[in-house]
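Tutorial, part two.
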Amino acid sequence: MLGPHRDSLRPGQFHCLVCLRIGDIFQFGRFTGVRQDMLAEMPNMRIVIAGGGTGGHIIPALAIANELRLAWRAEILFIGTPRGLESRLVPKAGYPLSLIEVGQLKNVSLLTRARTLLDLPRSLFRCRKLLRDFRPHAVIGVGGYASGPAMGAAILNHIPTLAFEPNAFPGLANRLVGKRVTAAAVNFAAAAKYFRNPQITGIPVREEFFRLAPRPVAAPPHLLVFGGSQGARILNTILPQIAAPLLAAIPGLTILHQAGARHVKATLAAYLKSRAPSHRWQVYDFLDDMPRRFEAADLVLSRSGASTVAELAAAGKPSLLIPFPQAADDHQRRNAEAFVEAHAARMLLEADLTPGLLLDTLTSLLTDRQALESMSARARPLAHPDATSRIVSVIAELVR
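Running the prediction step on this input gives:
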C-alpha cells in the first residue's frame, strides 16, 4: 500500500515552487489493481484534479473524473486558470472549478516570465488553502499552468499525488514535480524516466475509436486532414495548393478538411481558387463526429498532439504527422517520433514542408495500400483500451 511519511520539512524548504527541495516524502510500492471490495472501503472519496489549458490536458482529465465519480461516487474539485479550456469545459461537465492566477514560463517574453514568477508563490499559497479546505485524499496533476502549484502544494501538505503525462516528453510542470510525486500515469514509455513510480496506462480515449469498421478493400481512397479543434495554418495553406494535382494523381480520391473556425473561410476560398473538382473535397470549420470520420479515412494528415495520436492508435489509422513546432518543449515532435519508431506513422517537419514534398509524400502513401495496412497494424499495439480504468486503479492503490 502506498502512503505518505509524516516527516516534517526542514526550515527554509517552503518557498517558490520552482525552488522546491523536498526530501523523500513518500514510500513507494507496487500497484496491484483495484478489487471490487475496495469500493466499500472508500466512502466520501475526495479528489482534486489540477491543470488544463488545452484539450489534450482537460479532456482526459474529465474522463478520469467521470470514472472516479461513477466507480467511487467521488467528490471532485478541479483547479485551473481563467485562460484555459477548463474554465469552459469543467463547469459544463458539472464539476466545481477553483481558479488560480499563474501563467507560462517557457517560450514567452521576459515580462511574462517575470509575472509568472511573481504569481507562483501566491498561487502556491492559494492551492495550499484550497487543499486544506477541501481535504482531498489525493491530488492528480494533468499538466498545464495550474498543475505545478497544485502538485507542489499537495507535496508540501503530505497529500498523495499522481502525475498524469500524455506526451512522450513531459511538460515543465510535471518535470518539476516528477521525482517527488507518489506515482505517475504515462502514455509513452519514453516519459516514464522523468517520474517516480511510473505506470504506463495510456490516455483515456472514447470507446467508439476502438470499434471502427475496417475500410472496404474496393472503397475509393479518402484523406482526412485536421490540425486539432483550432485548425493548422500550414495545412490550411498548403493543402489547397496541391489539391488539384493530388486529386489528378489518385483516381477517386476524396478529401475532408477540418480548417478551424478562424480559418474556414480563407481555406474554402483557397480550395475554390485551386480549381480542384469541388465534388471531391469538403472543408468544415469543425467535425463533431471524429470516430466516424476516422472510420471513413484511409490516411489521416494531422498534428501530433497527445490526444490525436492516442485516437490514431485506438482507431488503427495510418497517419502522416506534422508536429506543431511551437508546442511546449517540442512535445508534438516527440509524440510523432514515437509513432515513427514503431512504423505506425510518417512524419514531416513543418520547417521542411513544401507543397512539392507534401504532394509527393501523400501520393506515395495513398497509392501504396500495403504500406497503409502495415502502418495500421503497427498503430494498434500503441493503444490502451483500458487506460481510464488503469488510471483509476493507480489512484485506488494510492489512497486506500
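Residues 208-382 form a domain with the Rossmann fold fold (CATH 3.40.50.2000). In part three we will examine how such features are distributed along the chain.
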